[in-house]
Amino acid sequence: MQIQKKVPIETITTFQNKGTISELWTLESVSDAQELIKSGKAWTVLGKGSNTLLRGRSVDIVAQVSPKSEMPIVSGTKLTVSAGTSGNRLLKLCQENGLTGVEFCAGVPTTVGGMVTMNFGCWGDEIGNHVESVGIVNSDGEYLEIASEDMAFSYRESRIQKEKWIVMTATFFLEEDDPATIQSRITQMIQTRLEKQPLRENSFGSIFKNPRGKYAGQIIEQLGLKGLRQGDIHISQKHANFMVNDKNGTYEEAITLIQHIQDEVQKKSQVQLEPEVQIVP
């Protein structure tokens, strides 16, 4: 296990807001995760930090699972990887082994653990639809394999968000396909995402969950809130459900902007927007 002290938040999140966390633990094994749980300290687990607004004062430790904690295992159309495996690496493994099903994740700066925890989804599909089981360390320090049907996957949620669990591995059930065809789909997905989302700017992805039957970005745009600014942070001109940190934005500025948008939408559209971004105060 590696432990770093006083780590700048901008080095571990895609939003790159200003601030520092006390300790960053890189978990390289189940025993490392067990040590974290037994530490008695307040902690949170971070993937790529692409769905997180982090100030970190409420936790003593931010932990990340190393992609090397578990080597990839391919068994027929099943693929098991570490929770620390990046989305790009997952897709590369799929393409190399002729396995299809998760191309919709292409272009997202995430990890397998993060995707499973929030049940990442887009374009009509969700990662939970392709998960067979998840290897976790529970709050008692036990390592368990949790079957997909016991994960309580729903829209942008899973059981992991309600339990004090650390995801260590995930096993996916996929389908066979031609590697060249898979690569073509991955390339197209990335291009589509780049055209519609500010992926090359400092952003944490979608700010809000989509209300039932509606799109949060569309509601925000219709109210003329694209480009709305708070300090060094603004609502993207490319997609109204994305927030961009120009350079020196802070956690406090982001929270102020989020709350202002919620208030405006509630007042003018009678819709209560719920944050999709995971907020760690």
Structure report:
This protein has 281 residues and is α+β, with helices and mostly antiparallel strands. The protein has 3 domains: 2-66, Uridine Diphospho-n-acetylenolpyruvylglucosamine Reductase, domain 2; 68-194, Uridine Diphospho-n-acetylenolpyruvylglucosamine Reductase, domain 3 (2-Layer Sandwich), CATH 3.30.465; 201-275, Uridine Diphospho-n-acetylenolpyruvylglucosamine Reductase, domain 1 (Alpha-Beta Complex), CATH 3.90.78.10. The chain has 6 helices and 19 strands. The protein has a 5-stranded antiparallel β-sheet with strand order 6-7-13-11-12. The chain is globular and about 50 Å long. It starts with a strand and ends with a strand. 42% of the residues are buried.
Summarize the structure.
The chain has six helices and 19 strands. With 281 residues, the chain is α+β, with helices and mostly antiparallel strands.
List the helices and strands and how they pair.
Blueprint: E1 2-8, E2 20-27, H1 30-38, E3 43-45, E4 52-54, E5 61-65, E6 73-75, E7 78-82, H2 87-96, E8 99-100, H3 112-118, E9 121-122, E10 125-126, E11 131-137, E12 143-147, E13 166-173, E14 175-176, H4 179-196, E15 203-206, H5 216-222, E16 229-230, E17 233-235, E18 242-245, H6 251-269, E19 278-280
Parallel strand pairs: 2-5, 3-5, 4-19
Antiparallel strand pairs: 1-2, 6-7, 7-13, 8-14, 9-10, 11-12, 11-13, 15-18, 16-17, 17-18
Helix pairs in contact: 2-4
